[in-house]
Structure formats: structure tokens, C-alpha cells
Amino acid sequence: MRTLLAFCVLLLISSHAAAQLISFPLKGKFYISVDDAATLFVNNRQLYKAGIGESSSSETLIEPGDRIVVKLVNTGGPRQFAMIFVSTDQKTIISFRNQMCKIIPDASKTDVTEKEYRDLKQFANQDRRGEMVRRFGFKNNAEWLWGAGNPCALGCILQRDYFKAMPQ
Fold first, then answer.
1. Which residues pair with 126 in a beta bridge?
2. Which of 68, 137, 142, 149 has a CA-to-CA distance to 155 between 20 and 30 Å?
3. Measured torsion, CA atoms of residues 78, 102, 41, 84, in degrees rounded to the nearest 10
4. β-strand 67-73 against 37-42: which pairing, if any?
5. CA distance linking residue 154 with residue 147, whole number of Å
6. Distance CA 50, CA 59 (A)
7. Which residues sit opposite 41 in a β-bridge?
8. pTM (2 decimals)?
9. Predicted confidence (pLDDT) per residue in 93-134, tens digit
10. Containing H/E element for 7?
11. Is the peptide bond before 78 cis (omega within 30 degrees of 0)?
12. Which residues is 154 bridged to in the sheet?
């Protein structure tokens, strides 16, 4: 029993230490799966426009506190959206999940302040609840998300604990 307890403590310490080793800002790419279109803004700057299917942004730098807004459009048929961020060294990942993203009522917005984000009440809608996203070439825990209506917008303010070690 003591050996198991010691192992658990060591595991907790090592995973905490690994999380502390991330140096910000972190360079990497956003990977998006969408039907039909997504426009990604980071700190009110348009970074990427994604069409139907899977694609990735150019490399960018991100860090805790950065504001992410994704504007989504479905032109017909099924709708879906999922997103991850993977560091250039492929050691760190952010898997975007519904509790990280909130619905922005004004779908024309390209930014959200911390106060606006705190005041938003509705988390992103989970489409295909429980079905994990397996469209990217990386293991991840992302969820299929959507906002309210069409077009719609989702907002997120990156937190330090969103940055995870890449699953093996």
C-alpha cells in the first residue's frame, strides 16, 4: 500500500513539474475540423479561415490570457466544429471542449474581453455528445462544438491549465 501511495505522489509531482516546464508564449498551430466554415481570431486578429474538412493555421504564438474567437457558418446539411492547438515541438496540446468555450450572442464579434467572457452564461453546445474527435493526426480530448444559430460565434480565454502534455 505504501508503495502504491509513493508511486501516486511521484506521478502527481512529475505531472505537475511537466506542466510547469511550458515556456510562454508557445509556438504552434491550430487544427480545425469544420462543416462548413470557421474563421479564427486570436486577440482580435484574424489568424485563419478554414473551409469544409480538416486543416491547420500557420504557426502562431499563444499564452494564457489570450482571447480566442471562432466565427462559424453552416451553408446546409450537417454542421460540426472541433479544434485543437499543438505546439511546434509536439509536446503540448490544447483540446477545446465545451466548458472552455462560451457562446457569443453577437456572431459578428471578433474579440471578447475578460469581463464580457465572465458575463457570458452559455457554454458551447456539444454536438454528438460523447463522441471524441478523431479527425486530427494527434491524440486529443476535443469535443464537437457549435454555438447558437447560424452564423454563430464561440469565445475562449486561454487558461494555464488548458495546456496539457501531448498524450502518448
1. 145
2. 137
3. -70
4. antiparallel
5. 6
6. 15
7. 46, 69
8. 0.87
9. 999 999 999 999 999 999 999 999 999 999 999 987 778 899
10. helix 2-20
11. no
12. 70, 103
